[in-house]
UniProtKB/TrEMBL annotation:
Belongs to the GlnE family. Pfam families: GlnD_UR_UTase, GlnE. Keywords: ATP-binding, Ligase, Magnesium, Multifunctional enzyme, Nucleotide-binding, Nucleotidyltransferase, Transferase. Involved in the regulation of glutamine synthetase GlnA, a key enzyme in the process to assimilate ammonia. When cellular nitrogen levels are high, the C-terminal adenylyl transferase (AT) inactivates GlnA by covalent transfer of an adenylyl group from ATP to specific tyrosine residue of GlnA, thus reducing its activity. Conversely, when nitrogen levels are low, the N-terminal adenylyl removase (AR) activates GlnA by removing the adenylyl group by phosphorolysis, increasing its activity. PANTHER family: BIFUNCTIONAL GLUTAMINE SYNTHETASE ADENYLYLTRANSFERASE_ADENYLYL-REMOVING ENZYME, GLUTAMINE SYNTHETASE ADENYLYLTRANSFERASE. GO terms for molecular function: [glutamate-ammonia-ligase] adenylyltransferase activity; [glutamine synthetase]-adenylyl-L-tyrosine phosphorylase activity; ATP binding; ligase activity; magnesium ion binding. One of its GO terms (cellular component) is cytosol. Residues 84-319, 594-832 form the Glutamate-ammonia ligase adenylyltransferase repeated domain. This is Bifunctional glutamine synthetase adenylyltransferase/adenylyl-removing enzyme. It comes from Pseudonocardia oroxyli. Residues 1-493 are annotated as: Adenylyl removase. Residues 501-1004 are annotated as: Adenylyl transferase. The gene is glnE. Its EC number is 2.7.7.89, 2.7.7.42.
């Protein structure tokens, strides 16, 4: 019998061991089944979100209610009461406690036509709450009789009574499927009306407590969800106060309203007022208007979109709404509209804790705020010319956008359905304990998930239990919101510019251009032209583009230059039109598409190279588990691969073409990895240097073979890297500074013959590599050779020795500090190093005159070579704390001390800095400042080339190029690029201070 009873109770959802005894005490259970006549009561109990909780609360109510027998009798006959009571008690512990504390309120749940059909309106609720504090509802300026604690208590009880009735009606269909379902937007609207009623009653109490003069007027303007009549069960109520007359008294009145409503009903938040918390709580109408005209940010107009007078002086409230409306609907034309909107979107995303991201109903991706943000942005863009869109309600506005053709009808309906679903979950979560929350239970908390699913009227579907149904629905709706968020802005644009068939209206040319401008395009007409070209026709490629572009445009809109990015995407797409895998890769590999849009919207160099090296797109994909990431290949392996591929070519022309092609591929790969943040600045420099060296080696070998022809090779040739090539610190725009050394290839070859042969080879290398090309130039610069441009291009080892022994100057010794063999004959390269080591690492260090000479040369270089009009604070090469400052400082230390400190004998600037600090020649802090300055200048110089597609040393002062450079260096695309400039100046200023002390010997 006991087992059968437990089974019967479990079938009803009752699992607690005390359930049977409680049911017997209530007289609803006998043996192993309900007593006769209590079956309907038991089934209603079983449908409660938590039957055990509902039963426990019924037991408490039975003990608390003096007329329990009457309530019980009504439960047997009143289907509505039965459904509402059990659903409420099984869903909300807080409202259950209120009913048990005030058991005489049970008629609020009874099925009376005047309460639930139709639902109560705002006027009746306002009258109920005013009566609760002793105010006359019909009075022009209601004044309460109750004050202080008594008024707060009375208002709290009346407010909870109204919540009790509304929540019961909202939950009724959970307890009894035959009862009507209240839609979530209807519930939200009634909650907003209830909040307005509460504020009206609080104002009546405040008037009694402060006794303001007759000419003191105060209007309460609802903002946010309350203004949009889409309030939650538990939410702050955002307001703005407008006053006239004695503002000091009006402010006191507003403060009392906030305190009374806060203690009785809900928190009142006035932080959306002008100047936020720092601004005056109450302003006159003129004060508000002047602020919005002169100082308001775009987000403040976005907030005002929901402004609605709800309490206080009605005429003043209407005047406020009429005054601010024109400013709201012209906000999209402001110069800073896009920047402000992007900043607000970023702030919203930053509020989400990473460990809550997949459970956040409100702020997470695919959550409520995504829907609200998208709808509000479209309203601001198109509401300027279409008054039908000017609704403060998200769902009403979405319906109007759909009806007007600004959003596809299916998309609008699906987005509205997902929004209602998410709001329903939010309401149920808040009802449970009447606490503010937007967080789903953790996946491991199956009991909480089961309660939520039942409270949201979900049932098992045959394949999943109720928890599985909830989880699947949550994920499906989040994915749908994310997808529609992308389509919402861009799909109608494609409908307007292509031959897509659509059930809904097309955006006009003007509306389409307005939307693109609002989303960040400086030239919307040009963008529409690109979209027409990409989606025109009936080809498969056009069809795929129509599918891809909503996602791609959404990604492009977050880049610093979407205009250039869209143009680049069109050029790349046209160049790769016959490449079968191109569009398929973008369609099937989401990360490739996302990364490509970022690269195209940030860099001019990447798209320029991409049309000639499209295969690089494949390395943008996520690597297969266990496979290396092709985006960050080992530079040494890359060099070997390039040499081997070039060596297989049959002739010099093919070999050089192959070397150029592979260099282009690698240059693009490194640029992509650099922009995507997967390489450090040192790794970028090493990779670029390795590619240059491999090209030199391959071209030297092929040219030597071609010059020799069928005859013997007459000379051994070594290429000595100088400058940044020797230090493995090349940038994207760096030339290859080199020296050429030769020696006879055989004993019977004279020096003159060897030099002649080597010169022909070297000139061939320079001519072939320096030939005009759309790629960044491959200039082999030998101007650092003895006697400069007037001296022979190639010398023998003995000739170098003779020159350096007789004529070498201190600047040449300094230049040799970075000399390193990079190509050609290894033994000859090693011999050259042995020759120059005593010159560049003098055992006795530098004499005072030599140090003075180096400082003089540096000062002259800084003065004469800095371009006219350049800004020293942001010139990456010759500016204060820039590349030249740091490199000359390290080189001076090497000339002075490398004879005694072998560790300083390195061609790398950063290695030299580290060793100088290790040897105690400079402090660790000074070394860190110099390193930071060098890295900042190097990264910025590389970014200039990446963004502009051409060399440059001067950072722009403002504009999109500066924004793109800042983005390329990791700053937010929608942030202030001035922050990057400030950081750069600060870093290089500190480096310059070290240079002045260490290099110039200046003291404070």
């Amino acid at each position: 019998m006991a087992d059968r009873t437990r089974t019967s109770l479990a079938r009803l959802g009752l699992t607690e061991p005390w359930a049977e005894g409680t049911l017997r005490d209530l007289g609803w259970w006998d043996g192993d089944r309900p007593v006769q006549g209590a079956e309907e009561i038991m089934w209603a109990l079983a449908r409660a979100p938590d039957p055990d909780l509902a039963l426990r609360q019924v037991e408490r109510l039975a003990h608390a209610a003096a007329d329990w027998k009457r309530i019980e009798a009504e439960l047997h006959t009143d289907v509505g009461l039965r459904g509402r009571l059990f659903a409420l008690l099984g869903a909300s512990t807080a409202l259950g406690d209120h009913l048990i504390a005030h058991p005489d309120r049970w008629p609020l749940l009874a099925d009376t036509a005047d309460r639930f059909d139709p639902p109560p309106d705002c006027a009746r609720r306002t009258a109920n709450l005013l009566r609760a504090v002793g105010a006359a509802p019909a009075a022009e300026r209601p004044r309460a009789q109750a004050t202080g604690t008594a008024a707060v208590t009375a208002l709290r009880t009346a407010y909870r009574d109204e919540l009790l009735g509304l929540a019961a009606a909202d939950l009724a269909a959970v307890g009894e499927p035959a009862l009507p379902v209240m839609e979530v937007d209807e519930v939200a609207a009634q909650l907003a009306d209830l909040a307005a009623a509460a504020l009206t009653a609080a104002l009546a109490v405040a008037v009694e407590e402060t006794d303001p003069p007759e000419d003191t007027r105060l209007a309460v303007i609802a903002m946010g969800k309350c203004g949009g009549r889409e309030l939650n069960y538990v939410s702050d109520v955002d307001v703005i106060f407008v006053g006239e007359g004695d503002l000091q008294v009006a402010t006191k009145l507003a403060s009392r309203v906030m305190r009374i409503a806060g203690e009785a009903c809900f928190e009142v938040d006035a932080n959306l007022r002008p100047e936020g918390r720092q601004g005056a709580l109450v302003r006159t109408l003129d004060g508000h208007v002047n602020y919005y005209k002169r100082w308001a940010k775009t987000w403040e107009f976005q907030a005002l979109l929901k402004a609605r007078p709800i309490a206080g002086d009605a005429a003043l409230g209407r005047a406020y709404a009429e005054a601010v409306a024109p400013m709201v609907w012209s906000a999209a034309g402001r110069d800073d509209f896009v920047t402000d909107v992007q900043a607000m979107r970023r702030r919203v995303e930053e509020h989400v804790r990473p460990d809550h991201a997949d459970r956040e109903l409100k702020l997470g991706r695919g959550g409520l705020r995504d829907v609200e943000f998208a709808v509000q942005l479209l309203q601001l863009v198109h509401g300027r010319t279409d008054p039908t869109l000017r609704s403060p309600s998200t769902l009403e506005a979405l319906a109007a956008l759909s009806e007007g053709g600004y959003v596809g009808r299916d998309d609008g309906a699906n987005l509205a359905a997902s929004y209602r679903f998410l709001r329903l979950l939010e309401h149920r979560l808040q009802l449970q304990k009447m606490r503010r929350t937007h967080l789903l239970p953790a996946r491991t908390d199956t009991d909480a998930l089961r309660w939520l699913a039942r409270a949201a009227r979900m049932r098992p579907d045959g394949r999943n239990d109720v928890v599985g149904v909830l989880t699947n629905e949550w994920q499906r709706n989040v994915r749908r919101v994310r997808r529609l968020h992308e389509k919402l802005f861009y799909r109608p644009l494609l409908t307007s510019v292509s031959r897509l068939s659509a059930d809904d209206n097309r955006l006009s040319e003007k509306a389409a251009a307005a939307r693109l401008k609002a989303l960040g395009w400086a030239s919307p007409e040009g963008a529409l032209g690109h979209l027409r070209a990409l989606t025109g026709g009936v080809s498969r490629a056009a069809s795929i583009q129509q599918t891809l572009l909503p996602v791609l445009l959404d990604a492009l809109a977050t880049t610093p230059d979407p205009d250039r990015g869209l143009l680049a995407y069109r050029q790349v797409s046209e160049a790769l039109a016959t490449t079968p895998w191109y569009l398929r890769l973008l369609r099937d590999e989401g990360q490739v598409a996302e990364r490509l849009m970022y690269l195209l919207g940030t860099s001019a160099l990447v798209p320029d190279l991409l049309v000639r090296a499209p295969e690089i797109l494949r390395v943008l994909a996520t690597p297969t588990p266990g496979q290396p990431d092709e985006l960050t290949r080992d530079p040494a392996a890359v060099g070997q691969w390039l040499l081997a591929a070039v060596a297989r070519q049959p002739d010099l022309t093919s070999a050089v073409a192959s070397a150029r092609s592979m260099r282009r591929h690698e240059l693009l790969r490194v640029a992509c990895a650099d922009l995507l943040g997967t390489l450090t600045v040192a790794e970028v420099c090493e990779a670029l240097s390795t590619v240059w060296i491999a090209v030199l080696r391959a071209t030297l070998a092929a040219t030597t073979k071609a010059v020799a022809g069928d005859g013997p090779v007459l000379a051994r040739i070594a290429v000595i890297g100088m400058g940044r090539l020797g230090g493995a610190e090349l940038g994207y725009s760096s030339d290859a500074d080199v020296l050429f050394v030769c020696a006879p290839a055989a004993p019977d070859v004279s020096d003159a013959a060897a030099v002649k042969f080597a010169t022909a080879v070297v000139e061939g290398v320079r001519t072939r590599l320096g030939a005009p090309s759309p790629d960044p130039a491959l200039i082999v610069d030998a101007d650092l050779r003895p006697e400069g441009r007037s001296g022979p291009l190639v010398r023998t080892l003995e000739s170098y020795h003779a020159y350096y022994a007789r004529w070498s100057e201190v600047w040449e010794a300094q230049a040799l500090l970075r000399a390193k063999p990079v190509a050609g004959d290894v033994e000859l390269g090693r011999a050259f190093v042995e020759l120059i080591d005593p010159i560049r690492y003098p055992a006795e260090g530098l004499e005072t005159e030599a140090v003075t000479e180096i400082r003089r040369i540096k000062a002259r270089v800084d003065e004469e070579r800095l371009p006219r009009g350049a800004d020293r604070s942001t010139h990456t090469k010759l500016g204060h704390g820039g590349l030249a400052d740091v490199e000359w400082t390290v080189q001076l230390l090497q000339l002075q001390h490398a004879g005694d400190v072998p560790e300083l004998r390195t061609t790398s600037t950063l290695d030299g800095l580290r060793e100088a600090a290790g040897a105690g020649l400079i402090s660790a802090d000074d070394a860190a400042e110099l390193r930071a300055g060098w890295e900042a200048a190097t990264r910025a110089r590389n970014a200039i080339m990446l963004v502009k597609g051409k060399p440059g040393d001067q950072l722009p002062r403002s504009g999109r190029e500066l924004a793109s450079i800042a983005t390329a260096l990791g700053y937010p695309a929608d942030g202030d690029p001035g922050q990057f400039l400030d950081d750069y100046r600060r870093t290089t200023r500190r480096a310059r201070a070290v240079v002045e002390r260490v290099f110039y010997g200046w003291t404070a």
